[in-house]
UniProtKB/TrEMBL annotation:
It is found in: Cytoplasm. This is Thiosulfate sulfurtransferase GlpE. It comes from Alkalimonas cellulosilytica. Keywords: Cytoplasm, Transferase. It is an enzyme of class 2 (transferase). CDD domains: GlpE_ST. Its EC number is 2.8.1.1. Pfam families: Rhodanese. Belongs to the GlpE family. Transmembrane segments: none annotated. The keyword Lipid biosynthesis does not apply. Residues 17-105 form the Rhodanese domain.
Amino acid sequence: MFEFKHISVADTASRLQQRTAVIADIRDEQSYAAGHIAGAWHLTSASLPAFMQQHDFATPVVVVCYHGNSSQGAAQYLAQQGFDEVYSMDGGMALWQQQHPVTTAND
């Protein structure tokens, strides 16, 4: 059975520092442009095929949304597509921004 897991903001930051995960941000275009985790992939219906082609299914994926709710459905979907290790980041970007810097489309 393909299931996603939950991950904290702190554990996500640690994985990013160690370069052991890719971030998939599923928020709308304006929210993503206004501020996202550096290096995050803006995952939309249109960008999903490219994401799946460009990322190894063995590489852990952390799905990020606004508050950690919508990311759960997207994480479940990616797990069902065959990604080995998929997480939904608890607290979403609302919590991330309280603890870590973000980058914008202009950075």
